[in-house]
Design a protein that fits this description.
Haem_Oase-like_multi-hlx, mainly alpha, 0% strand, binds fe (ii) ion, TENA/THI-4/PQQC family protein, Heme Oxygenase, Chain A, 268 residues
Length: 268
């Protein structure tokens, strides 16, 4: 069994709403999703069963950073929600409070309200992986990962609010599986032969594995339900399928880019 698929299905089992869960599971069974799952698993297997030159590790650190670290855009979505609420009728204001606080719980760890800000944890991880901070220079950008980041930004900041919340949910569910898989695979990984690799700092990876991102998925879906109370016309289960599938398709393109980084590695 493919572990990513198992974790995605387990997460769907926690959604509760049968209609919603069925739509989400349908997405993960599509041929495009199966390809994405295989491609992702293959990437992590390949990365963590080999040692790599510092340059390759820097490209990876930059590309993977662009796939995550997007709490800023969720905060932007919260701003949009607050603005939108200015035009709501007063009886819906409790729904605003509930929807907004559900969104807040998605980014409480990322922003450092609970624990160390995740940007700091990522920098510690990347420094322990690559030996310095040069990975954040523009020259290590992985174009497909940058494109993914633009999709994430636009899906939170430009799409209709209902769809934006669903895009966050799709991302949290995928991340549950991705982090749970890679935290296992990285435990025994020696990334490089270089001297600086005495210890890989995995706190960033470990704090996202297991229940963390799963909890964010459930908060996002709660936020969506509260928002729908103010705009029932947005309750389209077909939107769920489209938005979740679109997320998986974007993940696939990003992972093709990460594979490309490994393909292009020059060993001396
Ligand atoms: Fe995070
Ligand atoms: Fe999350």
């Amino acid at each position: 069994m493919n572990k990513i698929r198992d974790i995605l299905r387990e997460a769907t089992g926690r959604i509760g709403d049968h209609r919603l869960a069925e739509a989400v599971n349908g997405v993960y069974e599509s041929s495009s999703s199966r390809e994405t799952i295989l491609l992702t698993k293959d990437f992590w297997d390949r990365l963590t069963t080999n040692t790599w030159p510092q340059e390759t590790l820097r490209f990876f650190a930059s590309g993977w950073h662009d796939l995550h670290q997007s709490a800023f855009f969720v905060a932007g979505l919260q701003v949009r929600l607050q603005r939108d609420a200015a035009s709501w009728s007063p009886e819906h204001l409790p729904d605003l409070i509930h929807a907004s606080s559900e969104l807040a719980e998605i980014i409480s760890e990322d922003t450092g309200v609970d624990g160390t800000p995740h940007d700091e944890l990522y920098r510690n991880f990347a420094r322990s992986l690559t030996g310095d901070d040069l990975w954040s220079l523009d020259r290590y950008t992985v174009p497909a990962c940058k494109t993914f980041r633009i999709y994430v930004r636009e899906s939170r900041l430009s799409a209709p609010i209902s769809n934006a919340i669903l895009a966050v949910a799709a991302s949290e569910q995928w991340n549950t599986a991705e982090y749970s898989l890679c935290s296992q695979l990285m435990k025994n990984w020696q990334p490089s032969e270089a001297v600086h690799h005495c210890r890989l700092d995995l706190e960033y990876v470990d704090v996202h594995a297991g229940e963390t991102e799963l909890g964010h998925l459930l908060h996002a879906l709660n936020a969506w339900r509260f928002f729908l109370k103010t705009d029932p016309t947005a309750d389209q289960i077909s939107d769920v399928s489209t938005i979740f599938q679109h997320h998986i398709d974007q993940v696939k393109l990003a992972y093709l880019g990460l594979h490309h980084v490994l393909d292009n590695t020059k060993f001396h």
